[in-house]
Amino acid sequence: MWNTAPYLHDGSANTLYDVINNSAHGNASSLSQSDKDKLVAFLLQLDDSDAPLEAESATLSGGAVTASNHGGYSGTGFVDYPSSAGEASFTVNADSAGTYVLAIRYANGGGTSRPLNLEVNGTQVSALAFAPSGDWASWNVELVEITLNSGTNTLSLVGLTGAGGPNVDAITVRQ
Ligand SMILES: [Ca+2]
Ligand SMILES: [Ca+2]
Fold first, then answer.
1. Are residues 31 and 57 in the same domain?
2. Contact present, 101 and 173 (Cβ < 8 Å)
3. Tens digit of pLDDT for each residue in 37-96?
4. 134 and 74 assigned to the same domain
5. Measured distance CA(62)–CA(99) in Å, rounded
6. What is the CATH number of the domain that holds 103?
7. How far apart are the CA of 41 and the centre of ligand 1, in A?
8. Which structural domain, as residue segments, surrounds residue 167?
9. 114 alpha carbon, closest ligand
10. Ligand that comes closest to the CA of residue 163
């Protein structure tokens, strides 16, 4: 949200320094230039495009629910799939069309793989295995290459018949 102007509610600030130096925004204008520089740097690093997308914030359907009864997750929890269905859909913005690496952080405390279908923009691209991670509180990462369109993409992790999907904590997409 900080990478491009306009900033804040009325859109009049062309730079983050304009925001800080506007006395209507509290007393940040009295900070030293060095501290202002640090504040701007802090705000810009919040835009890290590698930041995880938490599964518990995805759009859930088909009986997939959020849960937090096993530790070690990021954010506020994870997604728990029902026995034979469920879906978590993520909206991913790509700066350009091309190949990206999708990393899915998951736990599978069962003794066998718990596959999910991966759909990108409505097309199934692969069935991912999600091998046992040893414990429901032990988290592994499943990696897969995907092709994204420039702009908004929808990634869906869809449950299959059987024991059900793994618990999914978060995803990251990197170029
Ligand atoms: Ca489950
Ligand atoms: Ca999470």
1. no
2. yes
3. 888 888 776 655 567 999 999 999 999 999 999 999 999 999 999 988 999 999 999 989
4. yes
5. 29
6. 2.60.120.260
7. 41
8. 53-174
9. 1
10. 1
